[in-house]
TrEMBL record:
Protein name (database record): NADH-ubiquinone oxidoreductase chain 3
Protein's UniProt keywords contain tRNA processing: no
Origin species: Esteya vermicola
Cellular component terms per the entry's GO annotation: mitochondrial membrane; NADH dehydrogenase complex
Top EC category: translocase
Superkingdom of this protein's organism: Eukaryota
Reaction(s) the record says it catalyses: a ubiquinone + NADH + 5 H(+)(in) = a ubiquinol + NAD(+) + 4 H(+)(out)
Parts of the chain that traverse the membrane: 6-25, 57-80, 86-107
Gene name linked to the record: ND3
Taxonomic lineage of the native organism: Eukaryota, Fungi, Dikarya, Ascomycota, Pezizomycotina
InterPro entries: NADH_UbQ/plastoQ_OxRdtase_su3, NDAH_ubi_oxred_su3_sf
Length: 133
């Protein structure tokens, strides 16, 4: 057997081992919320499957595409690291800096904050506990 064959067999064994460990040791406590239909951040109701949702889901998708594009453009630079000169390094650092500044700006404007029902209910519960003490 070659080393690649041994590696593939070893990876399959480790993957199956992790699945078995997860099935044996993971807690199983189902409740109605887990089994309810959930799509695009909203629970679907009978007859009301098409409802409006916030633009923040699109913002997440666009940020994912931008960061994915950044990785796609940085990959050739990393692969050809021996043939790149200081000019290529400066161009890649400039590109990464521009994308990072945009990401920090979005974080500063709270563009990535999505209020969920769970965070709102937990904050209410915490406020009640604070006031009752």
């Amino acid at each position: 057997m070659s080393s690649m064959s041994i590696f593939i067999v070893l990876v399959v064994i480790i993957a199956l081992l992790f699945i078995v460990i997860n099935l044996v040791l993971a807690p199983h406590n189902p409740y109605q919320e887990k089994y309810s239909i959930f799509e695009c951040g909203f629970h679907s109701f009978l007859g009301q499957n098409r409802s409006q949702f916030t633009i923040k889901f699109f913002i997440y998708a666009l940020i994912f595409l931008l960061l994915d594009l950044e990785i796609l453009l940085l990959f050739p630079f990393g692969v050809s690291g021996y043939t790149n000169d200081i000019y290529g390094l400066i161009i890649m650092l400039g590109f990464t800096t521009i994308v990072t500044i945009g990401f920090v700006y979005e974080l500063g404007k709270n563009a990535l904050k999505i209020d969920s029902r769970q965070s709102l209910t937990s904050n209410k519960v915490n406020n009640i506990k604070i006031f009752t003490l």
